[in-house]
Amino acid sequence: MSRYALNIAELSFAYGQKKALDNVNIQVEPGECTILLGPNGAGKSTLFALITRLYDSRLGRIELCGYDVKTNSRQALAKLGVVFQQTTLDPDLSVTQNLRYHAALHGLSQKTADLRIQEELERLDMYERRHEKVRQLNGGHKRRVEIARALLHKPSLLLLDEPSVGLDVPSREVIVRHVHQLAGRQNLAVLWATHLFDEIGADDSLVVLDKGVVKAQGKLSSVLSATGTSSAGQLFSQLTQGKSS
Ligand code: ADP
Ligand code: MG
């Protein structure tokens, strides 16, 4: 069994002639929250599409808990929970109905599903609202439901694609805190794509992606000292604009 929840090796991908990812190598360990930091167009969503098998790449390898997503798709994808960039809840169904459907897709019995739904919604302070239609929820609450949904089948790796963009500050804080706690307490591996560098925690690992290339990687502190920068904001502008400070 691989020590990595996610192991990406020498991954490249192009849309026609346009290179979107160029020889990307990323490892995420259990219990580790890795921030995939990159401006719009860096290739973050493309990377997620490859991890989730929405796209296929002939160049490189992606493994989830040691299972190759190409040759062992079923086992690999069972280890994965995903919150996509765009909301993917049905607005006309209730919170519980959305979650039950997803649990059924993962083969959970109704009894197990209802227990898991309660557990995850309670943790996010959303259990009281389980009978409401998703349409009635604000953006932050929809995101909480999506995070709960992604965790129902107890994945080893949680992928979040810009989950906090467009949310107000208190809603963002709830989500940032919750996901960091999950990684720490449940030994979950997290890959969190964002272009908001203030979401990086002191203990987080960091992958800086720009124009499909990994520009820096490691714990925030070591990436800062390796690049001679003093903050994530300074690092981000130096790496993405090619400026030295
Ligand atoms: P990010 O999620 O970091 O904003 P994307 O992965 O969406 O970046 O995009 C990476 C690059 O690939 C961008 O230059 C984007 O314009 C291009 N791209 C994304 N999706 C497509 C597509 N379906 N067809 C062609 N080019 C695409
Ligand atoms: Mg994107």
UniProtKB/TrEMBL annotation:
Residues 6-236 form the ABC transporter domain. Coiled coil: none annotated. One of its GO terms (molecular function) is ATP hydrolysis activity. InterPro entries: AAA+_ATPase (IPR003593), ABC_transporter-like_ATP-bd (IPR003439), ABC_transprt_ATP-bd_su_PQQ (IPR022467), P-loop_NTPase (IPR027417). Gene3D superfamilies: P-loop containing nucleotide triphosphate hydrolases. It holds the Pfam family ABC_tran. It comes from the Bacteria. Keywords: ATP-binding, Nucleotide-binding. PANTHER family: LINEARMYCIN RESISTANCE ATP-BINDING PROTEIN LNRL. This is ATP-binding cassette domain-containing protein. It comes from Methylomonas paludis. The lineage of its organism: Bacteria, Pseudomonadati, Pseudomonadota, Gammaproteobacteria, Methylococcales.
